[in-house]
């Protein structure tokens, strides 16, 4: 466990870095003067710096007072340079000299954006060749000189470990929990599930529900479990408008059941639509306070499309509304057309739930 205060440090969004660079550095043993060969192979997962979600990266290498650069690779976060840059080492090298490799995003207007850097001591390179992937790092932080001026954050970290024993160790507990399901003639108030529901606090109810659903799924009794819990809640409910709105063991168990059983179904139905929405990167904005209409040339923040002249609020709203309605229509169509894909357990559980609710509130006004 960790419990400590950490000083906050300033962050420059332009200097936030990510990704790695693939390098090969060597100094051939023969030849005079000695030459350091820096092979810039490629980089991956660089930070996006352009509105298109990509960058125009190039590498800048500095050594022994000289600086060389690679070509710019347009519109990518995974550039492949395959470029060898050579630096002549002086008589006094390597000493305490370093080889610095920086990656930048080239911009046609304004200054280039920093993407990360890595440094290598020259004496290390001269001793043995270096090759591999290296994490890009930001410029050295000046946070040490601030003396905690920005405040601190208390962070608690702990590792939670689940110990799983052989199945026979759990049989007495499983028998106790499943007894009201397998032997429904027992008085319901005295069962382990009923007592568990009474003594479980609101904070721990989520964890208890998660464990119960997993146990009963393993026993093939998840649908009877939900029927048992929801029936008890229905019996306590007098106003149908408040049905299943309490933070009860029944509502939490249904929620966890849907997460465990229904998550693959959710992904299968909605993932294609959601992926397409992200890939199209269409501009949608309905909030007038966030529309930029006064600029003579307006750039869409998600794609590089410029509109000459000012856009009217009505035009942006109309376009956004049309896109949004189209996307929502696709989502609804995907859901409505997915009946056969819906897991059988979910369909059984909710069919039973509907029947129980109709029994509890049979009048026509609740139909």
**Helical percent range?**
25-40%
**Under CATH, the topology of the largest domain is which?**
GTPase Activation - p120GAP, domain 1
Major β-sheet strand ordering: 6-3-2-9
Alpha-carbon Rg, integer: 31 Å
Care to count the β-strands?
12
CATH domain class of the largest domain: Mainly Alpha
Question: Which band does the percent of strand residues land in?
Answer: 15-25%
Order of helices and strands: EEEEEEEEHEEHHHHHEEHH
Task: Label the CATH architecture of the largest domain.
Answer: Orthogonal Bundle
Structural class: alpha+beta
Distance between the termini: 54 Å
**What is the overall shape?**
elongated
Low-confidence runs: 295-309
What does this structure look like?
Residues 17-134 form the C2 domain. Residues 204-367 form the Ras-GAP domain. One of its GO terms (molecular function) is GTPase activator activity. Keywords: GTPase activation. The protein has 367 residues and is an alpha+beta fold. The chain folds into two domains: 17-137, C2 domain (Immunoglobulin-like, Sandwich), CATH 2.60.40.150; 169-290 and 310-360, GTPase Activation - p120GAP, domain 1, CATH 1.10.506. 35% of the residues lie in helices and 21% in strands. It is built from eight helices and twelve strands. The protein has helices at 122-127, 171-182, 192-199, 205-218, 222-236, 249-280, 313-336, 344-360, and strands spanning 2-7, 20-26, 35-44, 57-63, 66-69, 80-88, 98-105, 113-121, 130-135, 152-157, 297-299, 306-308. The strands form four sheets. The chain has a four-stranded antiparallel beta sheet. The protein has a four-stranded antiparallel beta sheet with strand order 5-4-7-8. Strand 2 (20-26) and strand 3 form a beta hairpin. Helix 5 (222-236) packs across helix 6 and helix 5 (222-236) packs parallel to helix 8 (344-360).
């Amino acid at each position: 466990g960790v419990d400590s205060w950490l000083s906050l440090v300033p962050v420059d969004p332009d200097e936030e870095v990510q990704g790695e660079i693939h390098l090969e550095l060597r100094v051939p043993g023969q030849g005079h003067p000695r030459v350091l060969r820096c092979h810039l192979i490629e980089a991956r997962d660089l930070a996006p710096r352009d509105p298109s979600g990509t960058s125009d990266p190039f590498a800048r290498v500095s050594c022994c007072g000289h600086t060389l650069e690679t070509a710019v690779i347009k519109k990518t976060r995974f550039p492949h340079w395959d470029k060898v840059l050579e630096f002549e080492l002086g008589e006094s090298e390597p000493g305490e000299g370093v080889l610095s490799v920086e990656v930048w995003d080239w911009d046609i207007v304004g200054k280039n954006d920093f993407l990360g850097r890595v440094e290598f001591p020259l004496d290390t390179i001269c001793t043995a060749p270096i090759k591999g992937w290296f994490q890009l790092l930001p410029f050295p932080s000046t946070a040490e000189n601030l003396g905690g001026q920005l405040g601190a954050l208390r962070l608690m970290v702990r590792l939670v470990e689940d110990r799983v024993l052989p199945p026979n160790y759990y049989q007495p507990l499983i028998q106790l929990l499943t007894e009201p399901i397998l032997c429904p003639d027992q008085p319901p108030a005295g069962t382990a599930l009923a007592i568990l529901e009474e003594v479980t606090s609101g904070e721990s109810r989520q964890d208890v529900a998660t464990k119960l659903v997993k146990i009963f799924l393993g026993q093939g009794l998840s649908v009877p479990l939900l029927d048992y819990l929801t029936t008890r809640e229905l019996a306590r409910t007098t106003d149908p408008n408040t049905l299943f709105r309490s933070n009860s063991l029944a509502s939490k168990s249904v929620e966890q059941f849907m997460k465990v059983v229904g998550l693959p179904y959710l992904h299968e139905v909605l993932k294609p639509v959601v992926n397409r929405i992200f890939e199209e990167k269409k501009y949608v904005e309905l909030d007038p306070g966030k529309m930029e209409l006064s600029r003579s040339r307006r750039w869409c923040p998600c794609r590089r499309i410029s509109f000459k002249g000012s856009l009217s609020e009505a035009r942006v709203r109309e376009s956004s509304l049309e896109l949004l309605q189209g996307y929502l229509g696709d989502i609804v169509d995907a859901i409505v057309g997915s009946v056969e894909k819906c897991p059988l357990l979910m369909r059984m559980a909710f069919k039973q739930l509907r029947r129980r609710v109709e029994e509890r509130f049979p009048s026509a006004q609740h139909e």
